[in-house]
# Entry
Amino acid sequence: MKLRFEVSGEDFSLAGRASTELKRALGRLGIDPGAVRRAAVAMYEAEINMVIHAGGGVAEAEILPDRVVLVLADRGPGIPNLELAMREGWSTAADRFRELGFGAGMGLPNMKRNADELRVESSPGSGTTVTMTILLGKGAP
Amino acid sequence: MEILEARLYAGQDTLDLEVNAACGADLMSDVMAFVKEKVVLLTGLVNPQAIRTADLMDIKVIVFVRGKSPTEDLVAMAEENGMVLLGTKYSMFLACGRLYEAGLRGGGVREID
# Structure
């Protein structure tokens, strides 16, 4: 099963809707709640990043018998220094997003913690693609 | 509710649920990074992301601190998700302190190195 979501970069109040829908869909399939939560949180962080940094993009979730594969692709400015971006607390988000509850510098670290595999492909000017695999039946992190 | 002199905005029907821990945070990624158990979330953030974060983390009770109150669409979102929404006039520090004093001692977070 494959789900596809257009993530708007215009309206922050909609950010996270795709992740909520993914959570509902996985829940309906009777997948273990720990794995559902890991997938939903990983997707939410990636979705928020797309809105904050890249003006939106496309999020896809492929649900396989043993794992969920999430691919979030944007056409934003890219991540100039991935090593720094992976560090807890490091953030380049604008202050206005901090007032909205984000920009704690925990986005990519949270994705790494919740996904069993995280791949970030990014180059300045050509956008970022985040691919995450969540193995089912492994429970909470 | 009495401890926080709180006002109830949503979740009249689910008020009798039991919680053992609480987390105070305004940055939602911190909630997602550290919370492990089913906590009460105390926050000054009043927007759809507070509800969504709680929903993703299976958090059933949100307390808005510093006298903030949710808008109607947030109340509707919470009702839809079976959540309890409360509001207190106390600051984050005092609201957390009052709950702690009343015996709620769990932080509900993972081990932090």
Remarks:
- The first strand of chain A starts at residue 2 and ends at 8.
- Chain A is about 35% helix and 25% strand.
- The CA atoms of residues 50 and 120 of chain A lie 13 Å apart.
- Chain A touches chain B through 31 residues (CB under 8 Å).
